[in-house]
Amino acid sequence: MFTGWRLSVLGLVIVGTTAVVAPLFKLMEFGKTIPLFILFALFIGCMELMEWIKRRNRRR
Question: What stretches pass through the bilayer (predicted)?
Fold first, then answer.
């Protein structure tokens, strides 16, 4: 199963693809999908940063 950074990359690929495909099927407009993708990318970045800080503090 995917864990760690692979899960993050897979999530970004899936959400990015959805952000591009949803407007093509008239489900949402581009003006809404792109900010949602950016918000998701920031969320994933924060989660990765928190995990990195947790791992770094365990070594000490």
Answer: 7-28, 34-53
Among 20, 5, 14, smallest CA distance to 40 is for: 14
Q: Residue 19 CB: number of other CB atoms within 10 A?
A: 19
* Cα distances (Å, whole numbers) of residue 38 to 1, 2, 12, 53, 56: 25, 22, 10, 22, 27
Percent of the chain with pLDDT over 90: 63
Structure-token pair, residue 52: 């990195």
Contact call for residues 19 and 11 (beta carbons, < 8 A): no
At residue 12 the predicted structure's pLDDT band, cuts being 50, 70 and 90, is: very high
